[in-house]
Design goal:
Largest sheet: 6 strands, mixed
Strand order of the largest sheet: 6-7-8-3-9-10
Radius of gyration: 20 Å
Bound molecules: adenosine-5'-triphosphate
Strand content: 15-25%
Distance between the termini: 56 Å
Helix content: 25-40%
Shape: globular
Length: 291
Amino acid sequence: MTPDLMEEGARRASAYAAMKARGRTASGGRAAGFGRPVKPGEVDVTHGRILYLEDVSVSFDGFKAIDKLSLDIAPGELRCVIGPNGAGKTTMMDIITGKTRPDSGSVFFGSTIDLLRYREAEIAQLGIGRKFQKPTVFEQLTVYENLELALKTDKGVLASVRFRPDSAEGDRLAEVLRTIHLAGHVDRLAGTLSHGQKQWLEIGMLLMQDPKLLLLDEPVAGMTDEETARTAELFLSLKGRHSLMVVEHDMGFIKTISEKVTVLHEGAVLAEGSLEQVQADERVIEVYLGR
Ligand SMILES: Nc1ncnc2c1ncn2[C@@H]1O[C@H](COP(=O)(O)OP(=O)(O)OP(=O)(O)O)[C@@H](O)[C@H]1O
């Protein structure tokens, strides 16, 4: 066989495998990866990892924003990620959520779902929710309507118009309202909420999708001290049921919520451990003081 034909064969085989993986997942059969059967909506965490990145690299115009990054997160873990500006924190989240394709490396959700085979919207449907720094709630809708809308996202246009939450969805809505401290504000327009309340509402919208992994980018930026403290309580109540990756610069907040902290620098892991351990690490001190 000529090299051209071999290349074409390999290209077709991998395109077919990717297509099959997508089709099977959409129809609720198997997840992509090593062919291990996984029930619809289930993530295989038998190896003790819900998220696994290995040797991931990406360059922008020759600049390595992520450089052989490897890290993993356990199911139910609340992981904090810190690092100076430009360390690659946002780019890492972009890669996990399918917004940016890495040049090389592996990114797995559980041990069988190869995230690099999926598009951004598919990754959200697989159970990875992302909260960007700025709240993006629908200001003209009430708190309740915002949460209701979050339930509709995977339904078709017609189904959305006729949509009414069933009793299980209604229960979930009520539970989420309590979790995000907005049960007393259901009829308020989202536009009239404080900055902190808007952030909680957006987290609530993600929770309506019951994500297995939540990625949160600077969630307490701009919050009052009281809102920050309530957000810490909220995250602590979510861990266990969900896995969380929180990128933050606010060390006081990190101190309240953290178990394990990952320090990113120049697109790779510089240090990992408890906050006390990483804060005492000479390399970490140098990176932060050298800013
Ligand atoms: N699309 C892009 N094109 C070119 N360079 C990029 C792009 N995205 C990120 N970068 C560069 O990659 C590096 C990492 O950026 P990134 O935003 O991931 O860092 P960060 O750790 O999130 O920083 P911050 O704490 O300031 O948000 C930066 O030097 C940034 O300028």
